Amino acid sequence: MRASMLSDWLAQRIERTGGLPIYRQLYGLLQQAILSRELPAGTKVPSSRLLASELGLGRNTVTQVYEQLALEGYVWSATGQGTFVSDSAPDEIVGADSAARDAAPAEPRVLSARGARLLQGAGVSQRQGGAFMPGVPDVSRFPAAVWSRLQSKYWRRLPPDLLTYAPGGGLPKLRQVLADYLRTSRSVRCTPDQIIVTTGIHQSIDLAVRLLSDSGDVIWTEDPCYWGVRSVLQVSGLSLKAIPVDAEGINPSADDLADPPKLMLVTPSHQYPLGMVMSLARRRMLLEFARQNGCWIIEDDYDSEFRYGSRPLASLQGLDTAGQVIYVGSFGKTLFPGLRIGYIVVPEGLSTSFATASAELYREGQLLQQAVLAEFIGEGHFTSHIRRMRGLYGQRRQILLDTIRKRYGDALQIAGGDAGLHLVLRLPDGVDDREVAKAALAVNIVVRPLSGYFLRPGEGMSGLLIGYGCVAEEEIEPAFEKLAAVLDPALGSGFRFSTHA
Asked: What sequence ranges are listed for the domain HTH gntR-type (predicted)?
């Protein structure tokens, strides 16, 4: 396009009534003409006075557009010479000949192969509550008035240092009360300096694998295991080796033991999702194996506070004398998921490195929330809340167990119901648990298929993860009847139902 034709080209495209302001239209049209090379590099554009006159606009409007284009590098001006289109897309980069410029662009790869694998195996749900979402606490029972009172105290006299980045490791006061709590309730042996405050278990594990392994290193994971942690490990570049579990927890074979990994990730207090507790013999074997082979053990202690009929179990870390165990936990289930505060307990020799790396990678904040949480724990509200919720969840668990047995008797096996916020309803071989979960979602019931938690192809068991933490007592039986209505056809006419059904 010749500069002499620019006024006519613009006049045909500017909308005088409604739509975008004239300034935005003129800017956009000139930008488009330059980027499409309809106004080639070096073209002298009309003066602001001339263009304003030809378009019937105020000169200030055109002047402001030219100034904005110059600021962004589309045009340049020289006193006494005029305004010219910049050479903003050099031929040596985009291709010198017009055929190359006009050719269709190469199709971009929207996602990397790693990103595509992550999304393919993603288990995140749009639903985060209701019957029967596993692993979600009842946030309606959180003592919001107490939390609000503590938070208001800080807002009234807010120290400026609570509004900046977190110091390495997190707020010292929170680390102190956490150390006291973990020593007494979980038998974790630690000092405040060994605790690094994070946003939760995912970040804690991400930090550990970044500092303790390299791409291609092998990590053992329990099979089945939590899909969210599995995703963190997969995108880290580690090679995942699925180790089956039995009634005593992770159960490596002789061949597995002959080829030690760099790391192991275990849930010894409440295996996720099947719920067994790692035996003392298996714990001691694992610790000795790690000591002899220089392996790191990451202990994911995600919901050990909620045990029914017995006290919470001691941690694996408390048995570790060689400094091989990295202990991770969070407040997502004990308080509320949106708090996004967790912690990682590392051996003494690693505390400075982990604190520095956490600050370097994640630039943590949330100091105000950390201060409130420290007060909440220090004043005893945390242990009181856990005690109340343990009683409530235990009641809901029992209602769900009674409802299942009323419907199916002993025909379906129940696993993992002694702790946590979910149980597993085992299904007969051949029943497609993914299809059952899909059918349940269609009637507004959320369950997760057990087979989706297995890493080894063909080794998955059929079953449903059924959460009860965020389901009111009076809603459990009606909701389960809806689930049973879609489950029964999958079980088939030959299935032996309870005589009470």
From this structure: 20-88
